[in-house]
Amino acid sequence: MAAADEASRPFAGLSDVSISEDIPVEGDISVPMGSSRRDDEFSTLDEPVKETILRDLRAVGNKFIHVLYPKRSSALLRDWDLWGPLLLCVTLALLLQGGSADSDDQGGPQFAEVFVIIWFGSIIITLNSKLLGGTISFFQSLCVLGYCIMPLTVAMAVCRIVLVGGSGPVSFGVRLVVVTASFGWSTFASTAFLADSQPANRKALVVYPVFLFYFVIGWMVLTFSPAQ
Amino acid sequence: DSIFIDVLSAEFEEAAELLSVDPGASTLSMSASNTTTVAAGEGRGGGEEVKLDLSEDEEGQEESSELLGGQKAAGGFWTFEYYQSFFNVDTVQVLDRVKGSVMPLPGRNFIKHHLRSNPDLYGPFWICVTLVFSVAISGNLSVFLSQMGNPSFHYRPQFHRVTIAAVVIFLYAWLVPIGLWGFLTWRQGAERQIGGYSFLETVCVYGYSLFIYIPTSVLWIIPLEWVRWTLILIAMLISGSVLVLTFWPVVRDDTKVMAVATVAMIVVLHTLLAIGCKMYFFQIAVHSPTPAPTAPPAHITLATQPH
């Protein structure tokens, strides 16, 4: 008894908590089953597959439009995804196939080489930007760099169409103009998104590798020569 | 406040170590008499007698980078901050270092004058990457231009050469400084690092010295042989003299034979890199009298020297 009194003394101060004196606490602990009111926004497990795919496609398409008209919005940065870059990378690598690379290895880049250049290049640029003190996160930067390859992929498709018509100097001139324009567009679009996250005195140090990256991809697009 | 005193005393030890490494450092002055700015200790004081003279810093570097300039490891090598300390440069600093590598003046040691105990890895890495691509692309262009009139020539991008260029240039830019630094440290022997350079500084000076090859490789597209040889001689002269001016003060304390041999080895390796790149990437198949349908590209392939 004395021990119980001793034990209850630390809780003696609780006796003047109002809830234990005035308001009787009572209730029901059972959880109502089948309440779907709070689950509608969060659980996507029950929706039809078409809905799921369309939502992701809409997000990807939305970002494509942001690349086409680059303004300093943070939508691309906030909801990053890597579907778009993967799609673009595969498309570009497929379009770069079918060149003069069949038997000898003096031809264009192989499928794996394109993949390695794009993904390793993006990772190295992201690491570079973070090492220089940037505040952008790793995957956001990968997302931006990947999406901004889109103009160059479009240029590659245009180049292949132009090459169907012949590969003389005229077609080369057209391809040169198209690739240069899309290279400038890519660089401009990606720096519009990335430049804000860098300290002001290091912006050029971060932009230069991006420039080099798109230059190399543009070079691969421009020097694609069809098999004869 | 006690944390600040701890930081200050840690920096005092770092500064003392720096001084023993390099008595000629212009960035830290421990004498109490000629301090003009007390930037770090302003307003706090504490119990420290250390006054750091930062007034000679005219490059606009932050104080923190000066204080931590000699500190190679800001953490363990598994932390991100460790590597971040190698990228602690601004745009103007990088441009200034590039300028210093292109215009070597006798008496201006690149490491002492431009690096000022803040070696970075940004410059060497991106200069090497740019050089890899510029050499491969210019080589491809020059081969194309030289073969333009040849009707049986079929243009090929030769993309595998990028891989080869990358391997060669990165090996040169990393293995040679490792070897040179190891050799110099071994020769220093008992008098450790009086005038010796750290590993990072060696890598840094080698990386920046490769910068002159980038515009040279672009200009090599011009198909005239005498222009090419003139360009390569000028580039080797400039780049080699940057290296020689940097390493001569370290080496001259050694015996005459070793000093001359070391410097000669530096120059020879540099020359080999330049000539090797020229011959592999820019080879013109000018001596193919009657080209068979597939001979010209094959000729270019077969005529290259194995590395």
Automatic annotation (TrEMBL), chain A:
Subcellular location: Golgi apparatus membrane; Membrane
Annotated GO biological process: endoplasmic reticulum to Golgi vesicle-mediated transport
Cell inner membrane listed as a keyword: no
Yip1 domain boundaries: 67-220
Major localisation: Golgi
Topology of this chain in the membrane: Multi-pass membrane protein
Protein's UniProt keywords contain Transmembrane: yes
Sorted UniProt keywords: Membrane, Transmembrane, Transmembrane helix
Transmembrane segments: 80-99, 111-132, 144-166, 172-194, 206-225
Superkingdom of the organism of origin: Eukaryota
One GO CC term, this protein: trans-Golgi network
PANTHER family (UniProt xref): GOLGI MEMBRANE PROTEIN YIP1, PROTEIN YIPF6
Family, per entry: Belongs to the YIP1 family.
Designated name of the protein: Protein YIPF
Source organism (scientific name): Sparus aurata
Gene behind the chain: YIPF6
UniProtKB/TrEMBL annotation, chain B:
The protein, known as: Protein YIPF
InterPro entries to which the protein is assigned, alphabetical: Yip1_dom, Yip5/YIPF1/YIPF2
Skewed-composition ranges (Basic and acidic residues): 45-54
UniProt organism field: Sparus aurata
GO molecular function, one term: small GTPase binding
Domain Yip1, first and last residues per copy: 102-273
Similarity field: Belongs to the YIP1 family.
Membrane topology reported for the UniProt record: Multi-pass membrane protein
Entry annotated with the keyword Transcription regulation: no
UniProt keyword list: Membrane, Transmembrane, Transmembrane helix
Domain of life: Eukaryota
Biological processes per GO annotation: vesicle-mediated transport
Signal peptide limits: none
